[in-house]
Design a protein that fits this description.
15% strand; alpha+beta; 16 helices; 55% helix; four-stranded mixed beta sheet; 13 strands
Length: 433
């Protein structure tokens, strides 16, 4: 065998080895950037050492990407240079064109598309397999990568660009929302889980004024009544905590708990009507309507209370909010065997829904996976008023947000029933009578 043949074989073996290295770097880059971070975190918690290596590598993403790109670039350039040398030795000057065409196809197919495709389809498994070797590569190339980063930062600074990361809390929350919405399945169980996750992320954005029980629907008791009458009212009520008022319903003087009242009645000796129920009640806790659900949930936990009175900026009583209200905002209403989970919504045979005016937009969006805007209004009646800009008449029809809304019933100036029909396309906003 001549020296020329030996040199050619060595060059071909070197080209093949460099292509294998390029395959390794391309697959590593895709696997370590496309794997499931929550899965790797869970595996690390379970004691998987390779998962710990993966998390450590992706924790310093700039160092990881820099090392992989450096290795991949070196492998591709060296293999192309050696291929050009071999082709020139075989075909003369035309070998440059042959080498360019051949290496473009080989690198594109076998060192880029193929490894990236395999890594994408099996990202967690590939990441776990390659993590130890990639760790060694990152350590070996660390000095060169640091020099590269210094050059990049200086270049960005000279160009007037800020090299700081823009990944803040809002970006993280947006990523979580996107991950929730990307869930492929659309059965009832998944819709419920998706709604729960959305609600958790929105606790800091929703105000207690949006989920409270309005004052007109709150059961209250006149605290000036005799103890026997108050006891009868408590026992006939479906609630365990009931506000007491004196003089006028807005003047809340305490909140009576059914168990506290029964204990006081049991311990009382003599005429029951002589018992001062107000002394048994706990002082009312007033909170502003602008309090977020996250803040109120923390306040409930800190104070170990379940019940608060909601007031506006003028101190006027608006309603009540309970710990159960916030929990139901996350997990959804607890319902019985009826099909409709949202109280006040009745499906119709024609595919429409008869909805009470006080049903909240959030409940409708949660239950039916709709996208009705709830920034300017809390209830469906409020949305009608906001969109119409006046108090609609019975029979008037509106088309907006991809739905048909028909005013079915109105009591004085209050919209009490609306028929909602989902539309296949949003044709804008129209009105009719």
């Amino acid at each position: 065998m001549t020296d020329i043949d030996t040199s050619l074989i060595i060059d071909l073996v070197a080209i093949l080895a460099l292509l294998v290295m390029s395959f390794f770097f391309s697959g590593s880059e895709t696997a370590l950037t496309a794997h499931s971070r929550p899965l790797m975190h869970q595996l690390e918690q379970q004691g998987n050492r390779r998962a710990a290596l993966v998390n450590k590598l992706t924790g310093n993403r700039e160092q990881l990407i820099g090392a992989i790109l450096l290795g991949n670039t070196l492998a591709n350039i060296l293999s192309s240079a050696l291929a050009t040398k071999v082709m020139i030795s075989l075909f003369g000057e035309a070998g440059v064109a042959y080498a360019t065409l051949a290496m473009t196809l080989v690198i594109l197919i076998f060192a880029e598309i193929l490894p990236k495709t395999v890594a994408l389809r099996h990202a967690p498994r590939v990441a776990l397999v390659l993590a130890p070797l990639v760790t060694v590569v990152v350590w070996v190339l660390a000095p060169a990568v640091k020099v590269m980063h210094v050059v990049v930062r200086l270049t960005l600074r000279l160009a007037g660009a800020d090299g700081a990361s823009e990944h803040d809390v809002s970006t993280t929350v947006a990523e979580l929302r996107g991950a929730i919405e990307l869930h492929g399945r659309d059965d009832g169980e998944v819709r419920h889980e998706r709604a729960m996750l959305r609600s958790v992320l929105e606790l800091g954005e929703v105000r207690v004024g949006e989920i409270m029980t309005h004052r007109r629907n709150v059961v209250t008791i006149d605290g000036d009544q005799k103890a026997g009458a108050i006891l009868d009212a408590v026992l006939s009520s479906a609630y365990t905590r009931i506000p007491l008022w004196r003089g006028k319903p807005d003047n809340i003087i305490g909140v009576i708990h059914a168990k506290d009242l029964l204990r006081a009645v049991r311990a009382h000796v003599g005429d029951l009507d002589e018992l001062d129920v107000v002394t048994v009640a706990t002082p009312p806790w007033f909170i502003p309507e602008s309090t977020s659900l996250h803040e109120q949930l923390q306040a409930f936990r800190d104070r170990r209370e379940h019940f608060a009175m909601v007031v506006d900026e003028y101190g006027t009583l608006l309603g009540i909010v309970t710990l159960e209200d916030i929990l139901e905002e996350i997990v959804g209403d607890i319902t019985d065997e009826h099909d409709v989970a949202v109280s006040g919504v009745r499906p119709q045979a024609d595919g429409s829904y008869m909805v009470n005016g006080d049903v909240t937009l959030r409940d409708l969006n949660r239950e039916f996976d709709w996208r009705l805007p709830d920034e300017e209004a809390v209830t469906i009646a409020g949305l009608m008023l906001h969109e119409a800009r006046h108090i609609p008449e019975v029979g008037q029809v509106y088309l907006f947000h991809g739905f048909r809304f028909e005013i079915v019933r109105r009591v004085r100036n209050q919209i009490t029933a609306v028929r909602i029909t989902p539309q296949t396309t949003d044709r804008g906003t129209e009105t009719g009578t």
